[in-house]
């Protein structure tokens, strides 16, 4: 494995335009950041570069606008939270390429910080389009990748730029890889994974490899509904990707072959709508009403999950067990998080969790600080765990 070039190898940063790729895909409610963990974790690197007289030009994505300029996916509302965490002003440019970006970068003085608008407003970002990468590269002298949590994407700002400009790993990128390697390279067994959340189509495939690496797999959140549907259960109006039923069945078979115990919910909290305090009832998973929406795992499922955590020596977790942002549909996530935190504090469990919303959920449960390690990465963390090479990480490896 070739080592990375890091900021220590970048020489003097004074007067240099540093294109710093960060992950600011933070949980928001309207225009308010509800969990600033991802912001706080990149602050030391921004300060380090700025304090050396570098001009910090931040590149980031938000949401999945797929090349369209969707106002709901603007990074502008993140600026106040970023500026507050940094304790310095942060300028903002309404585009990440072209005249708006060029003028804002040209106006930067040494040590100042600028955030460019969502890279995913351009289709070239996700296509890793060379012309778009060149346009991004025009605004930097060097490139620093700090977005471990987006390193599983081979996009222009996460991979392409590393081939255009002198490229370095940021401090958080280094710290994440170090911590995950130390904590999980040879994990104490049995290992339990909890995978929940809402990004079903982009995460379901990796479960196929994950079942060969872990001893128990809890499938929760929106992800569980697709599996319940694959087992022939009616899931009403729940978040469910029915066209992935075959994939789910294949994963259950692979788990069986790998002797990985799969734990699916056996009861669910079903609501009439996706709203805090919506009318709700707890039902067995084979009795979900047609008009109902599964928003959380029920108490019997929580009991099973807690008992499984008690058997495990290592826990890896990505994706909440329910719609934890909406009371009372946070109950299963909060209970499981607190249970894992207690086991960790008692020295009985190594617990590693990651993901934008997962970290927010752990913090909401008051459990985050007790986990052994909390990563900013969700999907990237799971792919790393699968043993996959992450394009954003590979592109940083020092050549020659
Ligand atoms: N049953 C459910 N129905 C609908 N949404 C759900 C359900 N369970 C969980 N969710 C939603 O899943 C979202 C989090 O999923 P996601 O996969 O994005 O996790 P994450 O920790 O942010 O990981 P990543 O960093 O990869 O995005 C939350 O917003 C939560 O409301
Ligand atoms: O939230 C995340 O996991 C990262 O920001 C990557 O987002 P994506 O799944 O939309 O690529």
Overview of the molecule:
36% of the residues lie in helices and 17% in strands. The protein is of the alpha/beta class and 400 residues long. The protein has two domains: 7-173, 3-Layer(aba) Sandwich (Rossmann fold), CATH 3.40.50.1260; 187-386, Phosphoglycerate kinase, N-terminal domain (Rossmann fold). Helix 12 links the parallel strand 16 and strand 17 (373-375). Helix 7 packs parallel to helix 13 (379-386). Residues 23, 25, 64, 149-150, 153, 199, 202, 356, 378-379 line the site of 3-phosphoglyceric acid.
Question: How many beta-strand elements?
Answer: 17
What class would the helix/strand composition place it in? Answer: alpha/beta
Strand content is: 15-25%
What is the count of helical runs?
14
Q: Biggest sheet: strands, sense, closure?
A: 6 strands, parallel
Count of spatially separate domains: 2
Average residue-wise pLDDT? 96
In whole angstroms, how far apart are the ends?
A: 12 Å
CATH arch. level architecture of the largest domain: 3-Layer(aba) Sandwich
Q: Low-confidence segments, ≥5 residues, pLDDT <50?
A: none
- The CATH class of the largest domain turns out to be Alpha Beta
CATH topology of the largest domain: Rossmann fold
Helical amount:
25-40%
Provide the spatial order of strands within the biggest beta sheet: 5-6-4-1-7-8
**Distinct bound molecules:** adenosine-5'-triphosphate, 3-phosphoglyceric acid
- Name the overall outline: globular
CATH superfamily of the largest domain: Phosphoglycerate kinase, N-terminal domain
Main location: cytoplasm
Family: Belongs to the phosphoglycerate kinase family.
Subcellular location: Cytoplasm
Catalytic activity: (2R)-3-phosphoglycerate + ATP = (2R)-3-phospho-glyceroyl phosphate + ADP
């Amino acid at each position: 494995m070739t080592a990375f070039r890091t900021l220590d190898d970048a020489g003097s940063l004074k007067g240099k335009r540093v294109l710093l790729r960060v992950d600011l895909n933070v949980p928001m409610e309207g225009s308010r950041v509800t969990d600033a963990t991802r912001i706080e974790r990149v602050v030391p690197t921004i300060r380090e570069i700025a304090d050396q007289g570098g001009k910090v030009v931040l590149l980031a994505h938000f949401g999945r606008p797929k090349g369209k300029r969707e106002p709901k996916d603007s990074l502008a509302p993140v600026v106040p939270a970023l500026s507050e965490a940094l304790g310095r002003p942060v300028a903002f440019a309404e585009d990440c390429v072209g005249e708006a970006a060029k003028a804002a970068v040209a106006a930067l003085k040494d040590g100042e910080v600028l955030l460019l608008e969502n890279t995913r407003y351009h289709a070239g970002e996700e296509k890793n389009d060379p012309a778009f990468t060149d346009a991004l590269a025009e605004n930097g002298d060097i490139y620093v990748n700090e977005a471990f949590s987006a390193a599983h994407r081979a996009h222009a700002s996460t991979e392409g730029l590393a081939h255009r400009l002198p490229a370095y790993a940021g401090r958080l990128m280094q710290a994440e890889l170090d911590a995950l390697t130390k904590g999980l390279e040879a994990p104490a067994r049995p290992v339990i994974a909890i995978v929940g959340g809402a990004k079903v189509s982009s995460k379901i495939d990796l479960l196929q490899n994950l079942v060969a690496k872990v001893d128990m797999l809890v499938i929760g959140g929106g992800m569980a509904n697709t599996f319940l549907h694959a087992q022939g259960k009616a899931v009403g109006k729940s978040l469910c990707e029915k066209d992935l039923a075959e994939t789910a069945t294949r994963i259950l078979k692979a788990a069986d072959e790998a002797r990985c115990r799969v734990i699916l919910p056996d009861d669910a909290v079903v609501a009439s709508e996706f709203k805090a305090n919506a009318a709700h009832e707890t039902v067995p998973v084979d009795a979900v009403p047609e008009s109902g929406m599964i928003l959380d795992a029920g108490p019997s499922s929580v009991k099973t999950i807690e008992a499984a955590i008690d058997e495990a020596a290592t826990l890896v977790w990505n994706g909440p067990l329910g719609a934890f942002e909406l009371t009372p549909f946070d109950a299963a996530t909060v209970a499981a998080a607190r249970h894992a935190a207690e086991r960790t504090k008692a020295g009985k469990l190594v617990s590693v969790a990651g993901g934008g919303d997962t970290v927010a959920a752990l913090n909401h449960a008051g459990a985050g600080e007790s986990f052994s390690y909390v990563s900013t990465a969700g999907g990237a963390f799971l792919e790393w765990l699968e043993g996959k090479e992450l394009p954003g990480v590979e592109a940083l490896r020092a050549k020659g």
